[in-house]
Amino acid sequence: MSVQSKTLAIVYHSPYGHTAKIAQYIAKGAEKIGVAVHVMSIEHIEWDLLDQADGIVWGSPTYMGSVTGPFKMFMDSTSKRWMSRKWQGKLAAGFANSGGLSGDKLSVLQQINLFSMQHGMMWVGLPLLSTGQAETDLNRLASHLGLMTQSNNAPIELTPPQGDLDTAVWFGEYLALMLNRIH
Ligand SMILES: Cc1cc2nc3c(=O)[nH]c(=O)nc-3n(C[C@H](O)[C@H](O)[C@H](O)COP(=O)(O)O)c2cc1C
Fold first, then answer.
1. What is the band of 183 on the pLDDT scale with cuts at 50, 70, 90?
2. Phi and psi at residue 72, in whole multiples of 5°?
3. Is the peptide bond before 160 cis (omega within 30 degrees of 0)?
4. Phi/psi zone of residue 89: left (φ > 0), alpha (ψ -120 to 50 degrees), beta?
5. For residues 67 and 60, is the Cβ–Cβ distance under 8 A?
6. Is residue 109 within 8 Å of 57, Cβ to Cβ?
7. In the chain, at which end, N or C, are there fewer CB atoms within 10 A of the end residue's CB?
8. Helix axes 162-182, 18-32, angle to 10 degrees
9. Does residue 21 line the site of ligand 1, with CB under 6 A?
């Protein structure tokens, strides 16, 4: 008898590719634990995969201290699913990228958190303690509501830095472990 693996969807918006890169590193981490991952941009949402996923991770760049306009449009397009409680009980988590060190991206995580709670989802944060503030450190931005990464408006080959990428892998592993524990 085969055991069905858990599935995690990762949904992001990423005009310049940094947030998409983080989505891929979260996926790497979850896949290490044996979870099946579907990574998709809000421009190409696969609704059936989202509806069937055991958990969904949302990621947005920070625009004027907020999720991007298109990400908000996506959030609003889920209202029929909100009404039917389609995603109730699924694991939810979030990540936010910004140009600045703070960039006010906590607000993005709070918006994504509230959106998930509106859907009745089960929020999972980032329990990892910061190992320091260098670009190679884990959770260098000391975020706990979700994953924060920073791209400094530099090319995606250079940013987010290695510590942020490693933190994304750690986050993916952790979310996969939580999925296996709660579902
Ligand atoms: C319209 C606009 C508004 C932005 N506002 C902020 C901001 O409030 N704080 C910040 O740190 N960076 C801000 N940035 C930089 C973006 O957060 C950064 O370029 C983005 O996270 C890169 O993600 P992406 O490569 O996935 O598109 C802004 C960029 C744009 C185009």
1. low
2. -65, -40
3. yes
4. left
5. yes
6. no
7. N
8. 50
9. no
Cα-to-centroid distance, 147 and ligand 1 (Å):
16
- Dihedral pair phi/psi, residue 82, rounded to 5°: -60, -45
* Residue to probe by mutation, ligand 1, list 60, 62, 68, 141, most atoms within 8 Å of CB: 62
Q: Could you give all domains of the chain from N- to C-terminal order, each with its CATH number?
A: 7-182 (3.40.50.360)
Is residue 102 lining ligand 1, measured as CB closer than 6 Å? no
The residue assigned the tokens 């670009």 is 135
Mean pLDDT score, 142-156: 96
Does residue 1 surpass a pLDDT of 90?
no
**The whole model's pTM is what?**
0.98
Burial of 69 (0-12, 13-18, 19+ CB in 10 A): exposed
| Distance in angstroms (rounded) separating the CA atoms of residues 17 and 15 | 6
- The DSSP H or E segment spanning 180 is helix 162-182
In the predicted model, is pLDDT for residue 123 greater than 90? yes
Both tokens of residue 68?
A: 């991007």
Which residues touch 164 (CB under 8 Å, ≥6 apart)? 22, 135, 140, 141, 149, 150
Which of 95, 98, 107 to probe ligand 1 with, by most ligand atoms within 8 A of CB?
A: 98
Mean pLDDT in residue range 78-95: 98
